[in-house]
Fold:
Amino acid sequence: MKPAFRGLLVVVAGSVLLAGCTGDPDPGPTTESPTEAVAEGGRYVALGDSYTAGPRLGVTTGAQGCEQTAGNYPHLLADRLGLELTDVSCGGATSESLTASQTPPNGAPVPPQLDALTADTDLVTLSIGGNDGKAFGTLVTTCVGLALKDRQGAPCAELGDQARDGLGSQVTTLARRLGKAVKKIRERAPKARIVMVGYPQMFPASGTCDLLPLAKGDYPFARDLIERVVQAQQDAATEAGIDYVDVWTASEGHDICSADPWVAGLVPAERALEYHPYAQEQQVVADLLEELLAGS
Structure:
């Protein structure tokens, strides 16, 4: 699979016809997001899952159980630009968590993330979708477990083909759901600049490694599934007319199995939650966002 976003680190707001997504109602007419600079002191709301929350990268912030830390890219960006940050990112969040309450492990229910938005919000970043259909969690739990019994096969890919309500089934309509989410963000924060932030490369394009103990035949399946999630994020951003930050391209050569990984494997080499970003990845995302906002 050769995604359309390859080679583009930042995609500026536009409006191109979204193709290949069926099954959900149309999210409504496209309206471009404001592209003016966000002034110092502006109100910034960060929405997302654990790849935004930055587990174990610093002092714990946010709601109990959400694994959010001060080392994540929203905190880094807010500190650099002097923004007033409201970070509601939470580990395990799905696109449904934007409009419905979520109960993180070992924590109390947290409000819908969109409740953090107000009419005076100036900047919103959104990165979500990898947990829809339990896609990411299944890859690093169920699929790793299946590999213990079939190292050379592709047991997870076979499971994905069979599970209509599991792996991959939610990805086909993810762009639609994200487009609807952007519409709701605009309703609550009409003057805000909205930026979709993609995921990094986690799984290698070729080869295997002990830090990612999947069955040999499941590596292409795992990479393709996350690639489809990232493509859905970009498709939704393009259709909605908002900015898109392409972390996938920026992280090329830095997957879990690389010599310089930006995502931890089964045994993190430095402070991070297994299968989650290291501090370097979060710093790069903050760099890309700062570059985008400075070029307004």
Summary: Residues 10-130+175-206+224-294 form a domain with the Rossmann fold fold (CATH 3.40.50.1110). DSSP finds nine helices and eight strands in the chain. Strands lie at 10-11, 43-48, 60-61, 68-69, 84-87, 123-127, 193-197, 243-245. The longest strand covers residues 43-48.
